[in-house]
Amino acid sequence: MLYFNKNIKTIVRQPQNSYLKIFDPKINYEYSQGINETGLSILELLAKENNPNSIIEKLSNKYHEDKYSVEQKVNKFIILLKKTCFLNENVRYFPQVIGTTKYFTPDYITLELTKKCLLNCSHCYLDKTEKIEISEKKIHKILDDLISIKVSTIQLTGGEPMLYPQIEYVIDTLVNNGIKVLITTSGFYPPEKEDYILGLISKIQKNHGFVQVSLDGLKDTHNSIRKNRSCFERTINVIQKLVKMNIEVHTAMCVQKINFSEVEAVTALVQTLGVKLHRISNIIEEGNATKEILVNTEELIKVINHVSQQYSTKKFVVSNSEYSSKIISNRKSPNCGCGTLMLTISSNLDVYPCTLNRTSMFNLNKIKLIEGLTKYGKKFYNIKAPSRDDCNNCRYLHECLGCLTQGILHSKMKECVWQK
Fold it and tell me: Which of the 8 DSSP states describes residue 338?
């Protein structure tokens, strides 16, 4: 008898490069292992039954191949699965098989619930001239659609997502349907609502969710960037409360000229607070952010590498990327998954390839989600991201490497090799 180990969460069927989605609870990491068409056929049958002889017979009929040849392939694949600790012979467990060959099923969705926020940060990429947020009717439909296609991870952001009127309904619905929830927040709330908001955030622990709090400098610098004198103290207080509640807390520092010299000091501070991961990243010239406040990416990477070596431990990680860095991929793919495995739904219901690429693929007011995925999703898959092979001599290499969005932003240059 053959059964899957419980770390295999799902078998994901895609138009190209299907994969196993695997979770390691010890480090709260998800990763994926690519599988070919034959491997997918075997795994789909294993997920329904545990009799190898029956599987061999069905595959022989499906591919019109003799049983001996099929048996050799199946046995070889099963041995490999046992060696990688994906199968066992004792504990009965079968993972879900999700996805379709008609469109790419996104693995990670960012929901920009609202543009409303109590702050007006100097680097915010959103245009806040209109205080738009997703209506109650629309959020019900969106969540129903995302649940139906088995999206596994949803990031809630804004504006400030915890001020969204339907936030309790959103969190409860996602958590109760087994979806991992990430919340990106300023940690700056109306004092009278703070305890209520922290209670809502605590619910995401159920599916290994976590909260990311923005901290962009020491006291004076953070307050200057956030344009609020009390922001630093209140944010630190929220981080301490979340850690005390045993919620996994990450922090994010968006680096610009005003806070560049404080990168190491902020890293040391959040480590003492009990934060699990500290993400340090550059900003892009979008929204409030102008070219004048940007720092040199190559210099920033040197600083990030330094503080990572100095401060990273088994319990504290310094990272230079978004949550997608936590989805370690062994899939063969020409890019990061922008527009296929990752999508962003904005507060006006535009669907973007990723959070920083504000080129709308389609709008959910005009077209249904599955229809949009079918019609537009495959267009991004075969686009090769900027790489050292093409861009090694470019001054923007460190910004564009592996990122479709940064490649598109810099492709306006006449000398851009990647665009050609």
Answer: B
